């Protein structure tokens, strides 16, 4: 900011504050006009927002720009109507504040339309634009005030160096730009890997996480470098901190490393049917830290990835989805064994879920004094649809046919 601009802003600010001493009625009328304009603009914006979906482009523009644009229009209209009262330096300062706020909101709207950030980044962006405007307004219109000017010029000692409040403001501004660009690149890479790259979902997720972490580390180093913090001292501190965090979060680190191993090896994939010693279900989601399994009981179970690595897990669909099931039936030793075998085999073959190849087979598993145990072995290709259901259907059909043929169960 050159000297002429600074003098002009100082003259406006001084005139605005002197208006309270010279014509307090005019000053309060100006403030009332601004407050009324903001309230009416906010009410109109609220009605407009109801007509558009939340994430639509028009809704985003309304969220960012409608209130401030309508407020400016109302203020200009009131200045024309009440030219003698509202044409004063206080209103001009208010107009400057609204104009700078409009510029900041336009930038925020463009960022959200281009980058399409999700929560919480979307909320951070909207709140951050307001805070940035407030800091910018205080910086521009507060230079004439010795207290505010002294605040921006004050230096804070950090180790062997000193940093001013104005430098902190600049760092926050540049840091916000770096974070916005990082978020945009990260989400762009994520969309490309998952939708257009043609990679397997596991590999795409692993690359997405690695690239995302790398970018955030680079962004953090850039912000630290802009702040003028000694990276050598930070490296020593980071080493000690890393040892402490490593000891305290080794379980979490193991889950993350195990997640990368699972994603690259593809030994577990979304859609696979997993069986452990306690649960059985379908993998619905995989992240770096945990895997979600939707069980046959309708529950979503979160299993840490290091548990999947260190435990014995049966993946029923790793190579293919075909699995073999067994269904035992015990008949009386006096029963017609050939008829019982035919009925048993016919009941299995009539099930639509039973595969034709390999063909189902009936075995005489055990023979005891008063019973003979028959065992059916057959294959299905959809274990995710349940196992007990098909065995129940077979047993019900056998029970009915055995009653019709006079075959007794043991």
UniProtKB/TrEMBL annotation:
Q: Which residues form the Mechanosensitive ion channel transmembrane helices 2/3 domain?
A: 210-250
Q: Which residues cross the membrane?
A: 26-44, 64-83, 89-111, 123-143, 163-185, 206-229, 235-264
Keyword annotations from UniProtKB, A to Z? Cell membrane, Membrane, Transmembrane, Transmembrane helix
Q: Which residues form a coiled coil?
A: none
- Looking at the record, the residues that make up the Mechanosensitive ion channel MscS domain are 253-315
**Residues in Mechanosensitive ion channel MscS C-terminal domain copies:** 326-408
- Assigned GO CC terms: plasma membrane
Q: Name one GO molecular function term.
A: mechanosensitive monoatomic ion channel activity
InterPro entries given in the database record: LSM_dom_sf (IPR010920), MS_channel_1st (IPR049142), MS_channel_C (IPR049278), MscS-like_channel (IPR052702), MscS_beta-dom_sf (IPR023408), MscS_channel_2nd (IPR006685), MscS_channel_C_sf (IPR011066), MscS_channel_TM-2 (IPR011014)
The keyword Membrane appears for this protein: yes
State where it is primarily located.
Answer: membrane
Cellular localisation: Cell membrane
Q: How does it sit in the membrane?
A: Multi-pass membrane protein
Family statement drawn from the similarity comment of this UniProt entry? Belongs to the MscS (TC 1.A.23) family.
**What is the official name of this protein in its record?**
Mechanosensitive ion channel protein
What species is this protein from? Phyllobacterium myrsinacearum
């Amino acid at each position: 900011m050159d000297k002429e601009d600074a003098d002009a802003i100082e003259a406006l600010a001084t005139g605005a504050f002197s208006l309270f001493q010279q014509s307090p009625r005019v000053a309060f009328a100006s403030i009332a006009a601004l407050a009324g304009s903001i309230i009416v603009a906010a009410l109109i914006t609220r009605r407009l927002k109801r007509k558009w979906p939340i994430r639509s482009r028009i809704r985003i523009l309304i969220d960012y720009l409608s209130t401030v644009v309508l407020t400016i229009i109302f203020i200009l209209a009131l200045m024309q109507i009440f030219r003698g009262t509202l044409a004063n330096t206080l209103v001009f300062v208010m107009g400057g504040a609204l104009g700078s706020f409009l510029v900041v909101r336009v930038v925020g709207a463009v960022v959200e339309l281009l980058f399409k950030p999700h929560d919480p980044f979307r909320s951070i962006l909207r709140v951050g634009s307001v805070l940035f405007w407030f800091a910018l307004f205080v910086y521009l219109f507060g230079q004439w005030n010795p207290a505010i000017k002294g605040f921006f010029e004050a230096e804070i000692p950090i180790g062997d160096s000193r940093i001013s409040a104005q430098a902190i403001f600049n760092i926050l501004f540049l840091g916000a730009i770096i974070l916005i660009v990082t978020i945009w690149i990260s989400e762009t890479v994520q969309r490309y890997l998952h939708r257009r790259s043609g990679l397997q979902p596991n590999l795409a997720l692993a690359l997405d996480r690695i690239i995302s972490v790398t970018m955030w580390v680079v962004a953090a180093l850039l912000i630290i470098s802009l702040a003028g913090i000694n990276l050598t001292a930070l490296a020593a501190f980071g080493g000690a901190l890393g040892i402490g965090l490593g000891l305290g979060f080794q379980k979490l680190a193991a889950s993350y490393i195990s997640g990368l191993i699972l994603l690259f090896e593809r030994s577990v994939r979304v859609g696979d049917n997993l069986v452990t010693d306690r649960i059985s279900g379908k993998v619905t989601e995989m992240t770096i830290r945990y895997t979600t399994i939707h069980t046959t009981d309708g529950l979503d179970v979160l299993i840490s990835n290091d548990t999947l690595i260190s435990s014995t897990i049966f993946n029923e669909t790793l190579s293919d989805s075909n699995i073999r099931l067994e269904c035992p039936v015990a008949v009386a030793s006096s029963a017609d064994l050939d008829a019982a075998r035919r009925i048993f085999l016919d009941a299995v073959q009539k099930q639509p879920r039973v595969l034709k190849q390999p063909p189902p087979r009936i075995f005489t598993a055990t023979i005891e004094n008063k019973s003979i145990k028959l065992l059916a072995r057959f294959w299905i290709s959809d274990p995710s649809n349940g196992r007990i259901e098909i065995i129940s259907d077979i047993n019900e059909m056998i029970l009915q046919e055995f009653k019709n043929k006079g075959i007794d169960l043991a």
